[in-house]
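Sequence in, structure out.
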Amino acid sequence: MKTLANIAPLVVVLLLGLGAPRAIAGDAELLLSEGKVAEALEAARDEATASPGDLDAQELYIDLLLAFGLGPRAERRYRARVREQPEDPDSWYLVGRSAVGADDAREAYEAALRFDPEHARSHMGMAAVHLAAGRIERASAAYAIALQGDASLSEAWLGLVRSLAAEGHVAEALEAAKHAQTRIPEEPGIYLALATLAPDQARTILLQGTERAPGDARLHARLAEELLAAGDGASALRSSTTALQRDERLSDALRAKIFAEEMVKDRIDGSGYQSVRELVAVEPAAALPRWDALVEAYPRSSLVRAGRARVYEVTGNVAAAGADLEVAQRLGTNTEVQAALGLLRLREGHAAEAAPLLALAWESRSWDVSLGLALAEALFQSEQVPGAMKLLEGLAATQPFDLRIGRRYAQALLDADEPEKAYSFIRQRLGRVPDPQLGVALIAAALATGRTVEAASIVEDIAEQTNNPRLREAATRLRSGG
């Protein structure tokens, strides 16, 4: 029997992605696609509130809360529900799904199953707990029980396929995926699983997937990768472009599009692309001679140069990495190279050189929060403070749940000696995310503005939500004027 190590490149990575959060539908999906994160969460909350018996709506709201780091808020909501309906298995299941800790989740699912031993979603929840704890065989069994109770649960099908593959039962995983295809033919994750488990048929499978679930960007991106490996750059360019039209943030699609553009220009072929993909999984020091050979074989490929640059940097040869990226930049301007060279220059301490490169990359990837934060740091370090502050303010407005942005903008306001603005921003942010580090920043702003009593109440609430004794002590000191 085959093992995960030899059925296909990147198989483990791809299979680990099969249990990703379910697709978001309706108003919430539209709002998220427009970058209106807070509004999307509100839409999901309103739907969950209006339809308490709709488990799909409740799951969607829970999954969004968890994705935005608001797990404690979700758990409080559904524990309140179970207090009102203590013998309702659905309510206990939702507590389990919203639970932050594995033990709490397991206890809630077990409670649901005591009231209804055949509660399919609770068996699915128990399977996820087993899988997270490494009890893979028990996870497979629990997913199978869940599907006996409700064969429409796409999350359970994907979990079953993933757990069987993780056990090394690739043939059984493939059979389960084929069976799932007949039950949930419009679930895109099943086609991704089938393409991974049956690599010789991947192109046909993915074409089927794009027909059954044409709106899923991942399918188009994965198809583009298969087309690249086959040397069909023109078709890969069309597929990757379609993927980015559906989700401009999909990094796999962006990479595939850049490779496809190079292939169309005869700068790389299918064999070269396949080699690049294989080398990603090779230990850097061992991979370097093969990268050297690729650079010699494809001297006009900026992405091959960029790939070797990454290996140089990881192995400590920063000068060689920079030289390769400089050549890649001259060979053909693309976002990946601009971002990589800008980040390298920033890490080297050359912020003035990094800033324009990162700014160019940011124009194409304004959704990339990490890139935006890096550009802000380059602007700060090159004494372009107004530009950095404006960038952080914009990021804070469009990414209201991102902890990195909230913390960095709060600190920037405090550093700029704007305590009033800092206090207002932090207080509003903490209304969305109970972040202990922001709580510390609020204390600093409160001391500077004299709002110690008000801040103490806010900090106490954060301490309660996050179970943080240091914040409790800080709130006490604020109340006492110390």
